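User: Fold this, then the next.

Assistant: Folding the first:
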Amino acid sequence: MATTTEVWINSTNSTGNCTGNCCQSAESNDTPMYVGFICAAVSVVLFGSNFIPVKKFKTGDGMFFQWILCAGIWFVGLIVNIIQGFHFYYLSLLGGALWATGNICVVPVIQTIGLALGLLVWGTTNLLTGWASGSFGWFGTCKETQKNPAMNYIGVSIAVLSALSSMNIKSNVKSTHEENVPETESLLKNNYGVNNSDDEEDNERSYCERLSPRRKRILGFTLSLISGVFYGINFTPNIYVQDRKDQYPNASENGLDYVFGHFTGIFLTSTVYFMIYCIFKKNKPKVYPKVILPAFASGVMWAGATASWFVANKTLGEPVAFPIITTGPGLVASLWGLLVFGEIRGKRNYLFLVLSATMIITGGILCGVSKS
């Protein structure tokens, strides 16, 4: 008997589009369009703010941080499931696993090509992959139709250009430092003391940090592309269940009913990766106790943003929701840096910030109008 995942893969034609009458009822969504735009706005604000709680705390190599963050994500999924009534689609686990795998690639990306360039690559890839999967009906999902496709294409193009413009904004970020407090603790106490030798310090350097500049760049770009693709298709399994009325006749039209399965896939996958990391570190992973509550809070905010994104995807469609939600958070984060943390200064930075904001807003408006 074929598994759900096999059915999902094998039910596409040569172009990967949904065929037959499976999509006839997929457009039956009674949620008002304005609700979709409100949910998109909530996603933008929360995505642009969800790392504020951890801004002043050490996160180290990111492995412990991402695990606690994913625990916060799963907690929100559980609450949503209790409110909605129990809904669980096994294919949603795959979507969560895709996101968690893309997320785990971010750590080596930052170590090899840096956050700014990495964010540009995976963010743009995420935008284009998510937009294209909905526009062209990839992986057996329904092709989203726009009343004004040309306007949608222009809006997406402007959104991509806004990402390029934001690369020119230079921020003055102060390094986090907590005096008189150990930065890390091991899950198991080290009974052998601290070794400060050069050999020990070199052994503590990650694999990525020991690569040559050329190999760093190749690895960083490759992982950024992989991360962006996985981010871009992480909703696809859930949308597939909603669209394929021939296989899932009783599938819910409410995007929130897919949140728990998706978030469970995220937490299970992140746990597997963290256990592999613990084995690699010989059961002495780098743990940052003070980041636990901030990371959990960050996960809760991220989960709220993604839950809203589920509703926006169903109401507006991916070709509209993705350009708005993947570019808007950068503007929100920039405003935090400008107005609260004082990280963005100088006329040149202000100019590029205004330019990026103008393109983000214009692109979002064009994508939104293309739906109506």
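Now the next one, as you asked:
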Amino acid sequence: MPKIGAEKFHDFGLTQIACDSIEKCDADLKINLYNNIVLTGGTTLMHGFYERFEQEIHMEADEKAKTEINVNAALQRRNAAWIGGSMLSSFSTFSDMTIKYSDYSETNENDKHNCILKNTVY
């Protein structure tokens, strides 16, 4: 059986993981999260993926959700990462979020994580 990540996930499907993740969030966020489940990425384009995920999330979470469950799967989801990246790079603050190669290469191995964190936590 294929495994996703750590061993502890091998008995769970994506809908179970999604539901458990939402349930671990603050109560005031759960409604928005259940209302806005977004499927993205090339794998979600597999035949029947959207329909199966939607059916299984309803079976898993209808009792817990206490709200309407909406699963969104835009047609351009194959390229969503590229679209998001292009939007991010168009921000005027993008240069503040990036690390120059010279800064990274001049940083010693023990401090590389600090160099990265300093620029990614905004």
